[in-house]
Amino acid sequence: MEIRTLGRTGLPVGRLGMAAGYGVPAAAVERAFERGVNYLYWGSVRRGPFGQALRNLKPQRDRMVLVLQSYSRVAALMAPSVEIALRKLNFDHADVLLLGLWNHKPPRRILDASNNLRERGLIRHIAISTHHRPLGAELNADPGVGIVHVRYNAVHKGAEGEVFPLLPANNAGPGIVAFTATSWRQLMNPKRMPPGERVPTATDCYRFVLSNSAVDVCMTGPSNAAQADDALRAAELGPMGEEELAWMRRVGDFIHKH
């Protein structure tokens, strides 16, 4: 799998990431890790099998980018959440603390609590996820934020104009992680298709996202081993050609309008 430098964090990452929240079994996580999926997101839904996979992979901790998430708007709750997660995993730190779903820059109390965790060595980098694309551009100028998670798929392509072109060159800005590649499975729903167009698979959706060079990591959320394999196939097949991209854009535009 292609390895990218995740913006100003300097972290080496495979271009697919994997999230814990949908029930993927431990063996599938471990197999994906061996094939280059190292951005591993043990988020707000911290399922046991994913945690077991992380513990099993601990001997290869130096290759892993462990992501923990906090949706908390209460600064005092952030440290206990991170501490509990690390104890469950028997890890001494997370590589990334993801501050979940902010449409404006988090207030000082949240950023101070995050920086305190970094000073204690419990996290190394701060990420922020958003659906509000102008925030992604604003965070380019904040050296304290190393990663931005932004929605990007064939239905929601706004990041192509509002986020990606504004990124500084040479990894001087935040790393970019794209989420909701399937647009909450809308892109795979036969009932949502324009007349005469074939239905995209999950593999197609991931390949569409990976075809944009501004995206460092495309998140996947498999619920079983077969879905994990579908994600890995996207990395094997590589970027889409112009005809495939045009097809995905037609499907995405139709869904967006209807």
- Total strands: the figure is 10
- What is the number of independent domains? 1
Radius of gyration: 18 Å
Helix content: 25-40%
CATH class: Alpha Beta
Q: Unreliable runs, pLDDT <50, ≥5 residues? A: none
Overall pLDDT confidence: 96
| CATH-defined superfamily | NADP-dependent oxidoreductase domain
| Annotation field: number of helices | 9
Largest β sheet strand count, sense and barrel closure: 8 strands, parallel, barrel
- Could you say what the CATH architecture is? Alpha-Beta Barrel
Q: Indicate the structural class.
A: alpha/beta
Strand content: 15-25%
Distance between the termini: 36 Å
* Strand and helix order: EEEHEHEHEHEHEHEHEHH
- Largest sheet: spatial strand order: 3-4-5-6-7-8-9-10
Global geometry: globular
What is the CATH third-level topology name? TIM Barrel
Give a structural overview.
By secondary structure, the protein is an alpha/beta fold. It has one domain: NADP-dependent oxidoreductase domain (TIM Barrel), CATH 3.20.20.100. The protein is built from nine helices and ten strands. The chain has helices at residues 26-34, 48-56, 78-89, 108-119, 133-139, 159-162, 202-210, 225-237, 242-257, and strands at residues 3-5, 12-14, 16-19, 39-42, 65-70, 94-99, 123-130, 147-151, 175-179, 217-220. It has an eight-stranded parallel barrel with strand order 3-4-5-6-7-8-9-10, surrounded by six helices. Strand 9, helix 7 (202-210) and strand 10 form a beta-alpha-beta unit. The longest helix has 16 residues, at 242-257. The radius of gyration is 18 Å and the shape is globular. The model has no long low-confidence stretch (mean pLDDT 96).
